[in-house]
Amino acid sequence: MNKVLTSKKMFALGIATIASFVMTNNVLANTENTTFTKTDDTIAVNQPEVNLSKDSAAVYDNIGITYQTEIPDNVEINNGDKIVYQLPQELTWTTNQQFDVYNHDQEVVGNAQTNIEQNNVTTTFNDYFKSHPQNKQFTLNLNAQFNRNVVNENEEKLYNLDFNGTVIPATAQKSVGPSSTEIVAKWGWQTQEDPDTIQWGGRVNLMKDNNMINVHVSDTWDSNQEYVPGSLRMYYLKTAEPWEMEYELNTDFVMHRRNGFDFSIANLNGRTISLTYQTRLKNRNASPYNVLGFKADNNREESFDRVIELANGSGMAIGEKAPVVTFIPSNPPTIDKPELPFGTVPNDAPVLDKPELPFGTVPNDAPVLDKPELPFGTVPNDAPVLDKPELPFGTVPNDAPVLDKPELPFGTVPNDAPVLDKPELPFGTVPNDAPVLDKPELPFGTVPNDAPVLDKPELPFGTVPNEAPVYDKPELPFGTVPNDAPVLDLPELHIELPKNEEPKTPETPKSDEPVTPTLQVEPRVESEKKVLPKTGDAVLKSLVLTVTGLGLAAFVTKKRFTK
């Protein structure tokens, strides 16, 4: 029977809590008299919109509280600003807790934290409302209970709960004691210090039945909890209401298991057993569940299960970004234009009468003038047309005059070489053709044109034979460097026909100077017989001159190397 009542009671409480959570934000969240006061970084909400999940509850029941607030656009909420809600003194939080506040996109907007000592809840916002300053809405959902330090649980009474100026009536019910036929009972709550810690309690044989023989008690919790080691305490009670202990039991006989414990007693002898212990939640996603079971002889068997409604607070805050609008005044102001001394509106060019100019034209228009007759009969910028005069040399300027070529005294055109007959040379060869001679035996045993093989002497100027010494080029009287041919004016050539003369004997060179044999080219003489005169003598003289020249060259070369 107790199990059924408890289940019905928990179901009704869950429906009330869900109803408080699903309240839409589109409903007007403020009362007609809601006001906001901001001091430094704290925003106080006077006469907020508050809804309770029930208007009557026992002192151990949870009461769902929902704050709904529409924050005006002119109330600026910056990063770190806070909104504080104060609880009525008749209520208190079931536990200290903190939780995040989200927007519709599941982004964190702020963080809320309850404080049992100050009996309020403070929400601190981040910079979300700085970027979403319009149509701001804020909702908080929390659980509270009647404060047993203020409310008398042994009487039923109506209290006017004051939520920062918003007054809501609620009734604290009188506590109903346990049934006189109770065999087992179980209860629990979140500790005020830690919302993840559950304090469990239970009783056995409250009716003090003397026939409880071979009693076996078991306690089991769900997989989301784990036992807090050393927290189990067991007592024999004199009375349960009010609670009075007879003595505390040693718990060494209790057998612990992973999700509960068991113990057995041979005979209760009409006494009541009370037990307490703690479990820790692995997470707060599900409400903790616990079952206390009892067995005894004579088919005595009872159980009691309990589900604890957790004080899981939640919050939501939303806002909208301010639209970017280019301001265009619907009714631009009309301003009278002042009369300026020159009778025009600023930025408008004044209108002036155009004066009559002495030359009859409007300013900025070019005057039209008659073109005068120029003395040379042409329009300006046009080149005058003149007759070409007859030049004294009969040609038009810039044309080269045509002159007759004069007859040159040597019968040829300038720059053309004269054509001459080749004379007969006295040694029977044509110029530029070397004569073919027998090679004589030279006194120094070498064939002409073969260089003698000599020991290379040490030269005073440090060079190897066959390497030409480097000398400074002397200044020549005619201003040119040796080996550069002087530039001379070409003389007038006067060619005379040669006469039959005897060949000149070459002068004997000095022994100190090298001599290069010079061939005397005699012009060819036209004779009636077409033969060279004295041909035999000319060949002999040529051979003697050649040998003499080669000897002199060898002597000079040897003399130089010796030096």
Task: Walk me through this protein's architecture.
This protein is mostly beta strands and 563 residues long. The protein contains 3 helices and 25 strands. Strands 1, 2, 3, 5, 6, 7, 8, 9, 10, 11 and 25 form an 11-stranded mixed beta sheet that branches. Strands 14, 15, 17, 18, 19 and 22 form a 6-stranded antiparallel beta sheet that branches. Strands 20-21-16-23-24 form a 5-stranded antiparallel beta sheet. Strand 9 (108-115) and strand 10 (120-125) form a beta hairpin. The longest helix is centred in the C-terminal third of the chain and has 28 residues, at 535-562. The radius of gyration is 71 Å and the shape is elongated.
What's the helical proportion of residues?
A: under 10%
The overall strand count is 25
Please tell me what the overall shape is: elongated
Q: How large is the radius of gyration? A: 71 Å
Q: Give the class from helix and strand content and strand pairing.
A: mainly beta
Strand proportion, as a percent range, falls in 25-35%
The overall pLDDT, averaged over residues, is: 76
Distance between the termini: 154 Å
Largest sheet: 11 strands, mixed
Low-confidence stretches are: 1-29, 505-532
